[in-house]
Amino acid sequence: MKVLIIGAGAAGITAGHLLAERGVEFEILEAGPVHGGRVRKIDDFVDFPIDVGAEWIHQWIRARPAAFTALLDGNDARFRTFTDRPETTTIWRKGKLRASRWLHFVPTPTDLKFADSTWFDALDSLATPELLEHVRFNCPVTTIDYRNDTVVATDALGSTHTGDRVLVTVPIAMLQQETIRFEPPLPADKRAEIQKEAMPGGLKVFIEFSERFYPDIVHMGWPFGFSVQSVLDECVYYNAALGKDSRRHVLGLFTQGSKAERYTAHGTDESLFAFVLAELDEIFDGKASKFYLQHVVQDWTREPFIGGSYSQRRASAEKLAAPVAGTVFFAGEAMNPNGKTIAVHGACESAYTAVDSLLSVVS
Questions:
Q1: Is the pLDDT of residue 174 over 70?
Q2: Would you say residue 45 lies in a domain?
Q3: Is residue 122 part of a domain?
Q4: Is 49 part of a structural domain of the chain?
Q5: Same domain for 96 and 213
Q6: Between these two residues, 6 and 226, which has the higher pLDDT value?
Q7: Host domain of residue 244
Q8: Mean pLDDT estimate for the chain
Q9: Structural domain contains residue 219
């Protein structure tokens, strides 16, 4: 048996790792030039690696892929972690910055963070040189033909790749935009469930300053809501150097959902950052411009082959993950049928389920 894997993000790399362990032939077709998907780092910004994609180790998301069980418990000797406990928390609301010591008494999920590595390093531990030999980069798939016994995937250059099964791990936004044409088309109920999901825009910005003038957390607006959607909408500035072995002053911005729209509305990284700097100057009386050194912007909304942040749990993960015709299988952070969706380890766990499923199908 040969399996085609579409996408080399967290789910795709995990699936390749599992198939390699089981001695199953596979080929990974990745649209971009690197693996990782929404898991990405930069090493040359300051003296610690920066997660411009997935960053926190969300223990409250109960996904438990075997490859990362020790990491999720904080016991993986390869990756030092610490509990993320900001000391100074504020809220910027109605033109005023207010200290919010009472937030310390509000029950919140426990998160770990990496001390001197990143989620990319953890995922990269699965992407061995032997696995990467099976990855075809810069190979965006445009068509998947599963009408016959052999699956044929055609890429943007017209090259074809064949297999007995295909595992689709691209972000849900790419399926919604129909960047891949299926022959025959996916069933109507499958297409409807795909469109039911939401994957809004999102981005991260990191700024280094010569002096620190900001608290550990600045919530932009009221951080709590009374609906699932308002809880998932986020916008927060945070001390990105907290817990790191560094004396550099790095402020991060993470936002997604409706709160991200005023940032993603800017068409370029330059105009987006100008808006961010002006916002910080308003909050901190011009200190942002005064102490600014450098910055990096990662707007996942405009990232090719990604198109947004992460799924919002509006569709059924079980229906999204359901295979088609015993040939086309699905995995990713939106498609964990155990109900433990989103996050890196949710995506990885979905790959375990999908691989077990596709290997159990009798030809």
A1: yes
A2: no
A3: yes
A4: no
A5: yes
A6: 6
A7: 81-110+202-299
A8: 94
A9: yes
Assess whether 266 and 243 both reside in one domain. yes
102 pLDDT band (50/70/90 cuts)? low
Same domain (yes/no): 216, 250: yes
**Is the domain of 99 the same as that of 29?**
no
Q: Which of 73-77, 96-100, 243-247 has the lowest mean pLDDT?
A: 96-100
Whether residue 72 is found in the same domain as residue 91: no
State the total domains in the chain. Answer: 2
Q: Identify the domain boundary among 278, 299, 320.
A: 299
pLDDT at res. 225: 52
For the chain, the three-class secondary structure string (H helix, E strand, C coil) is CEEEEECCCHHHHHHHHHHHHCCCEEEEECCCCCCCCCCCEECCCCCCCEECCCCCEECCCCCCCHHHHHHHCCCCCCCCEEECCCCCEEEEECCEEEECHHHHHCCCCCEEEECCCCHHHHHHCCCCHHHHCCEECCCCEEEEECCCCCEEEEECCCCEEEECEEEECCCHHHHHCCCCEEECCCCHHHHHHHHHCCCCCEEEEEEEECCCCCCCEEEECCCCCCCHHHHHCEEEEEECCCCCCCCCEEEEEEEEHHHHHHHHCCCCHHHHHHHHHHHHHHHCCCHHHHHEEEEEEEECCCCCCCCCCCCCCCCCHHHHHCCECCCEEECCCCCCCCCCCCCHHHHHHHHHHHHHHHHHCCC
pTM for the structure as a whole: 0.94
